[in-house]
Amino acid sequence: MMTIIKTSGSLAGGIIAGEPFDFLDLRLRGIDPHEVRQGFYNLQQRRYIIFNKKRGYTFTKKGQTWLKNENLRYFKNQFTKWDKKWRVVIFDIPQEKSLQRQSFRRKLVLMGFQPIQKSVFVFPYPCEEEIAIIARELNITNNIDILLAESPGFKEEELLKTFDL
Hints:
Layout lengths: L1 E3 L11 E2 L5 H6 L4 H13 L3 E4 L3 E4 L1 H14 L11 E6 L6 H14 L2 E4 L2 E4 L4 H11 L5 E6 L6 H7 L3
Antiparallel strand pairs: 1-2, 1-4, 3-4, 5-7, 5-8, 6-7
């Protein structure tokens, strides 16, 4: 299990490690501790974290999976400078794995990818590692390719607006 700790930077950026969480530090940084407590309560109700007097709050297995998915969902926000390359994700997942295909497609959309066709999605920032993790988890690595392109095709102008580039 992972333990939730006091952070020195952003709250979301460093919540995994080994010390107790310090609500006083939050108030000093202008964060309402009541909102944080409510968030912890909600995570407990969803069985993502548990409280242990010795170790503090710890993520359950279900919580670790949730956290990993949330990090992937919001990873796109960490990019500020575009390298003028498009990541084109192409997949051909067989009917026997239709649940994995649906899940993969949903994860791409949650991460901010834009569909060009039913099995072709585009994204302007590096994402190869994140896609590899998702593909491994869904057991579909042999059904996915990522191309690095200078242009996504006829929809480039629309995509530039969508991604605010």
